Backbone:
């Protein structure tokens, strides 16, 4: 083999770029190994969320608490001539970055409905019933406890399960957890998120401004028209997506609903699929032999386009955005929203109805609702519980569903405008999520082999 032929066969995974300085590259690789190992753990997102929440609590109750609140109230704005938009940094996180989180949630719901656990009526029946019971029971317990006018509006706070923490707990239990229980939890969490989205849209939305809905509808028409024309460049859809976001926000609906709508409209069918990519790849490799540079560039572009079309747009976007959501947006959200100031008012927060409604709704309402719903579904033959799952597995499912961190904190921020009720509800969510997580892990370790 000639020297030129050997150089042409250099592997990307076993060599460095020609411009790279070898000692520095080796140092960077050594530094990245622990981070890569951490990010490869399924529970890593939950661990990072926990650390962010702990950091927010410590910071908000430290001598530097004023800097915590000053940071999230830092005004940011855009000005174009006489028009200007100015909002605090907290708004950018809750109404901006969280739109991306809900966009991914919308795509995951759409994917599960197309080809996942929710694609058949029989497969969706059990998680749907369990999720419904796991939403109604916590809301009912909250309503029974929080009877004050100021606290009663937060009945939606304990309704949702945090999928990152829940999956992390099951991952830490290892082989004790059957695969069917993991699938059931994921399907339950997806339906749970959908229910929380419906609750936000119907009950935590201010008065509607109809012209805003018309603007959002115009953006949706633009998205669908581009799909029908066959536009495949993902960045081209940013403009109509921003129109949907602006219309929903102007209409008085929380803008995260725009993310869900766009996610549900994202196509879930691949153009080529694996077999089509294999065909295009072989054709491209055959065409590469002895080609000149301009033709080479065109062939490589064709192969790259085929690679992108192997997955559906939804799958490709979930794969691309999930790390940013799990390790960026959600920890930032936790840092911005978990900072409850306990100094001087801790006893008042612990005695508030919003605290006990959120705490007991998650720790008691979730297990009771999930177990009762599964029992009723099985007795009425509406759904079948998988044969390998017994009562202990369903108890674990109910306990782990009581971890309601991200979505519960988000709904609390929408439900309460006054600082006292919001702080009490947030503290209840944090306490309940910690108790539910520890209880689920301890029960799983002791009850499951």
Residues:
């Amino acid at each position: 083999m000639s020297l030129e032929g050997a150089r042409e066969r250099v592997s990307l995974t076993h060599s460095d770029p020609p411009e790279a300085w070898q000692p520095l590259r080796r140092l960077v690789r050594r530094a990245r190994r622990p981070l890569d190992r951490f990010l490869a753990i399924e529970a890593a997102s939950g661990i990072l969320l926990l650390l962010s929440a702990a950091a927010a609590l410590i910071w908000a109750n430290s001598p530097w608490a004023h800097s915590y609140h000053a940071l999230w109230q830092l005004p940011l704005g855009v000005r174009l001539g006489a028009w200007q938009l100015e909002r605090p940094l907290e708004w950018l996180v809750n109404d901006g970055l969280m739109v991306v989180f809900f966009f991914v949630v919308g795509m995951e719901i759409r994917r599960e409905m197309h080809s996942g656990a929710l694609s058949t009526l029989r497969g969706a029946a059990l998680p749907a019933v369990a999720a419904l019971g796991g939403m109604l029971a916590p809301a009912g317990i909250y309503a029974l406890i929080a009877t004050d006018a100021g606290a009663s509006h937060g009945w939606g706070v304990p309704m949702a399960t945090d999928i990152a923490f829940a999956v992390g707990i099951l991952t830490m239990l290892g082989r004790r957890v059957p695969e069917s229980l993991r699938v059931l939890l994921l399907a339950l969490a997806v339906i749970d998120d959908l229910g929380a989205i419906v609750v936000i849209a119907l009950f935590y939305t201010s008065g509607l401004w109809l012209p805003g809905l018309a603007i959002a509808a115009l953006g949706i028409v633009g998205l669908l028209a581009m799909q029908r024309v066959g536009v495949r460049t993902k960045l081209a859809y940013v403009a109509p997506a921003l129109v949907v976001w602006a219309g929903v926000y102007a209409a008085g609906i929380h803008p995260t609903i725009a993310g869900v709508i766009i996610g549900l409209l994202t196509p879930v069918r691949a153009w080529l699929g694996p077999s089509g990519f294999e065909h295009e790849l072989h054709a491209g490799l055959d065409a590469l032999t002895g080609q000149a540079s301009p033709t080479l560039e065109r062939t490589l572009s064709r192969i790259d386009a085929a690679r992108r079309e192997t997955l559906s747009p939804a799958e490709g976007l979930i794969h691309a955005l999930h790390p940013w959501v799990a390790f960026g947006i959600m920890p930032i959200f936790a840092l911005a929203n978990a900072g409850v100031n306990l100094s001087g008012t801790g006893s008042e927060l612990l005695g508030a109805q919003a605290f006990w409604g959120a705490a007991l709704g998650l720790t008691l309402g979730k297990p009771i609702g999930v177990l009762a719903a599964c029992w009723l579904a099985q007795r009425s033959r509406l759904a079948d519980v998988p044969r390998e799952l017994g009562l202990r597995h369903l108890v674990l499912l109910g306990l782990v569903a009581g971890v309601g961190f991200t979505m519960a904190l988000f709904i609390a921020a929408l439900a309460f405008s006054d600082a006292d009720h919001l702080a009490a509800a947030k503290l209840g969510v944090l306490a309940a999520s910690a108790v539910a997580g520890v209880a689920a892990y301890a029960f799983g370790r002791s009850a499951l082999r």
